[in-house]
Amino acid sequence: MNQLSTEAPSRAALPLLDSEVLRTFVTIAESGSFTRASQQLFRTPSALSMQIKRLEETLGQTLFVREARYVRLTAEGEMLLGYGRRLLKLNAEAVTQFLAPTIEGRVGLGITDDVVGRILPNVLVQFARSHPAVQVDVVVGRSVELLAKLDASELDLALVMAAGPGQASRGEVVHSEPLVWAGREGGVAVQRTPLPVTLAQQGCPWRRITLNALDQAGIAYRVAYSCDHCAGQEAAMLADLAITAFPKSLIRPPLKRLSNDLLPPLGDYQVALVKRAGNGDASEVLAERVVEAFREG
After folding, report:
1. Among residues 168, 176, 212, 243, which is most buried (max CB within 10 A)?
2. What protein family does this chain belong to (predicted)?
């Protein structure tokens, strides 16, 4: 009598994921709707539904939970989304390497120091791999300085802090996260009166947000230390000489998010990508890499 094999299928027997089906899956996941995805992909919702059904059958998993007006990913769908994005990116890089014309030249990228460590290493390595003939000049500075260099055609792209409420904004917002109070864990700076804070110089949106919040809450403060670089502000906090407003993702031990009920809320901090008019192909490709880096976290 024949018996069913309990051995795992060989690698040769594993199904291959079609890149077009993956593109459909990623587009639906990011748009949250079959209807919106169909408009982006120029196909009918029913055609996309059939693709997803076949993909679910291939993987033996349910990828979406269908609601009345939108869809959301299951746990398995969230896992596949990460793989799908990476596979599509790798596919694009491979095709570009052989079919796209060689891009040469120079790109000037301005970036604030709060963003440097978060995305720059990955952006540079991916861009250098796909466009090795392009020279990338990176300038780290304050948002106001970078925008001035961009307007003077000294930079092609600039990642800057987005303008606050009531101010004219420039570029595309590519990242947003809470701005929170930070200080040394177990420190006493937060208990002092007037409250010692460490901030950047005039013109920094964090400074404006912080001081406005303290003024509106009626909290007495003094600017104890001033530095335009995050490392300088971190030094003051590590020494327990001051506290400050920081993006949540930048807080690492022994610093901590302060939960003092007397400290006022600060709202969100946003990063905008601003492009110089008339940029070339290399700048546009680098801009795409920057947006992808923020999207992938």
Report:
1. 243
2. Belongs to the LysR transcriptional regulatory family.
Q: What is the pLDDT of residues 76-127, one digit of tens each?
A: 999 999 999 999 888 887 777 676 556 778 999 999 988 888 888 888 888 8
pLDDT tens-place string over residues 233-247: 999 999 999 999 998
Q: What is the fold of 19-99?
A: Arc Repressor Mutant, subunit A (1.10.10)
Q: Is the pLDDT of residue 192 over 90?
A: yes
- The domain 105-175+271-296 having CATH identifier 3.40.190.10: the answer here is yes
Give the architecture-level CATH label for domain 177-268.
3-Layer(aba) Sandwich (3.40)
Distance of CA 224 to the CA centre of its chain: 31
Whether residue 163 has pLDDT greater than 90: no
**Domains 105-175+271-296 and 177-268 agree in fold:** yes
Residue 166 has pLDDT above 60, yes or no: no
pLDDT of residue 74: 93
pTM: 0.64
